Amino acid sequence: MALLTTVRFHTTVAQQQQLPRGGPAEVAFIGRSNAGKSSAINAICQRRRLAFSSRTPGRTQALNFFALGKEPDTVGFLVDTPGYGYAAAPGAIRHGWDALAGRYLRSRAQLRAVVMMLDIRRGITDLDRQMLAWIPPGMRVIALLTKADKLGRVQQSAVRRAVRDELAKLRDAGSFEVVLFSSTDRIGLDEARTAIEALFANANADGDGAPHADAGADGSDADGSGSGSRAADGSAGQDAPAAPPPAGIPGPKRRA
User: Fold this and answer.
1) pTM over 0.90, yes/no
2) DSSP class of 174
3) Tens digit of pLDDT for each residue in 32-43?
4) Which of 66, 2, 55 is nearest to 29 (CA)?
């Protein structure tokens, strides 16, 4: 059984202190609002309604954790982060994004890689560059050029080359890959699945993805220590948070 087909909802995190304690490797999905993130997650995991899009883009401000592995074990998590960059989102919501998703990307020890949605018609935007600055430079990034069906093959290849060239300037060598993707026309599905499952396979080989018992219905781990959104001590064992930036994105600047 392919790992991604074992996916199931685990928990929703609205505040840093609700992050699951420790646990196996995590791979986060990020992207601008309307970049096709929810559709990509559903297509990759072969589910119709695993991830949802808000009817008001930019308003969904929580991290959704999806467990992987044959129940009751969990060998990894997919983490659906809030969409960013929606112009109509109030300042308080933008600041909330910084405080939760921004800190998560910057300092979460369990985070092993990021799957980034890039609308192929836009390429890498200024907001995407700012988002990339949140991600530690050596962390693996899989860039999905979503909505690839909207362009012809020649244009697809040109954008892919341009994105590769820019990522080569922004990221460490060998830390990224670029995949043409369309959930509508099923372009790049196998390539994306293979790349994501390889991330968890590597984490397992390194000892980061050893099976963990799923949390119980009350939010506690099998050993009763507590996890998810119901940690008794309020800390949920999260990593030391980075100082939040000003409201809105941008993230920290990369040094030349």
Assistant:
1) no
2) T
3) 888 899 999 999
4) 66
